[in-house]
Write a structure and sequence with these properties.
D-Maltodextrin-Binding Protein, domain 2; 360 residues; eleven-stranded mixed beta sheet; alpha/beta; single chain; 44% helix
Length: 360
């Protein structure tokens, strides 16, 4: 117990020291920037954040600002870091909190409200925060991807529902990620809860386990080791991944492909819609510039840049998708979503109950 308390205290101390270093660095940077008449804006993001250098440079030049991005782990880690430094924030803007952690961020009152003029171009389905403290930036669907060649060679029908996955011909053919350690794993757990309800999802998982479902800890292992569609050597021709994985297979193929070797199962209630948000952190001294950056993220140029940078989909209805997404990505007509407040209230219990049933 003393060891655990020591580690907790050490973690908090390191975060506070990092915050202090950031503040010290910011003073130094501001002195340098002031000599050029520049301000500096800090943006905390998840580790997957990426944007075209030309696009970022254009914003900096147009607004006489220096953008500094602080990558801080996955969506949960980003929110935790923002909470621990609340009142003395490490950044001015936070990007990357998703609907699984949205309620926690809002309950902690991390953000300033801001109604960006770009919101008029975003469909209501993505506006999950009526207070406009967390503004939607992109979405993605967690779906089951399948190896097209395997199904064709073995004359197997393509599963059309979650219930189909319980059929004996799919015994041992699906690999999923542990929801306790993986974001797509958690999303797929949410998919089953949304479809079968809290009273039925554990029964489904018990039957899925009996039908040989394989569980690994992370997406990289599931996709690049177990899945036959990416490496060609895995034992499972179905994997929980993303709706943007098929176009990614084409884009990153070592040899040019005429078609994607994988596709997504996009039947009703088979995919989970993840929405990522950005917000202006309370305590910022750059409120006006932070608002401009939010507008920039929601604008068409940034929205059209995201798919090939982060393999997510734009929420701005005026943004066009790149050709590879149009050809190879499948967007489900009826994905599932769960109220963020319900997730915040039950996430830990759902994961614990799943662990007891599937990994016991």
């Amino acid at each position: 117990m003393r060891h655990i308390r020591f580690l907790i205290l050490l973690s908090i101390l390191l975060i506070l020291l990092t915050s202090g270093c950031r503040a010290k660095d910011q003073v130094g940077n501001e002195t340098s920037s002031q000599a050029q008449g520049q301000t500096e804006l800090f943006i905390m993001t998840h580790d997957s954040f990426s944007a075209s250098e030309d696009l970022i440079s254009a914003f900096e030049k147009a607004n006489n600002v220096k953008l500094t991005f602080i990558k801080s782990g996955d969506a949960g880690a980003v929110v935790n870091r923002a909470i621990l430094t609340k009142g003395n924030p490490l950044a001015d803007v936070l990007y990357g909190v998703d609907n699984n952690f949205l309620s926690r961020a809002l309950e902690e009152d991390l953000f300033e409200a801001y109604k960006s003029p770009e919101l008029q171009n975003i469909p209501e389905i993505y506006l999950l925060d009526p207070t406009n403290k967390a503004l939607p930036v992109d979405f993605g669907d967690v779906c089951i991807n399948y190896d097209k060649q395997f199904f064709e060679a073995n004359h197997l029908p393509i599963p059309e529902t979650l219930e189909d996955l319980l059929r004996k011909e799919y015994d041992g053919l699906l690999v999923v990620e542990n929801p306790a350690t993986s974001s797509p794993g958690l999303a797929f757990l949410m998919t089953t809860i949304a479809h079968f309800g809290e009273d039925g999802y554990l029964d489904y998982w018990e039957k899925l386990a009996e039908n040989g479902v394989v569980v690994v800890n992370d997406w990289e292992t599931a996709y690049y080791t177990n899945f036959s569609g990416s490496s060609g050597q895995g034992d499972q021709p179905m994997v929980v991944s993303y709706g943007s994985s098929p176009p990614a297979e084409v884009i990153f193929a070592e040899e040019p492909l005429e078609d994607s070797i994988t596709a997504s199962l996009v039947g009703d209630d088979m995919c989970y819609r993840q929405v990522e948000f950005a917000g202006i952190l309370k305590g910022t001294e750059q409120l006006g510039m932070a608002q401009k950056f939010i507008d920039f993220m929601l604008s068409v140029p940034f929205q059209e840049d995201m798919p090939l940078q982060m393999f997510v989909f734009p929420v701005n209805g005026k943004a066009n998708l790149p050709e590879e997404f149009v050809k190879y990505a499948q967007i489900p007509e009826k994905p599932v979503q769960i109220n963020p407040a319900l997730i915040a209230e039950n996430r830990s219990k759902w994961i614990e109950d799943w662990t007891e049933v599937v990994l016991r």
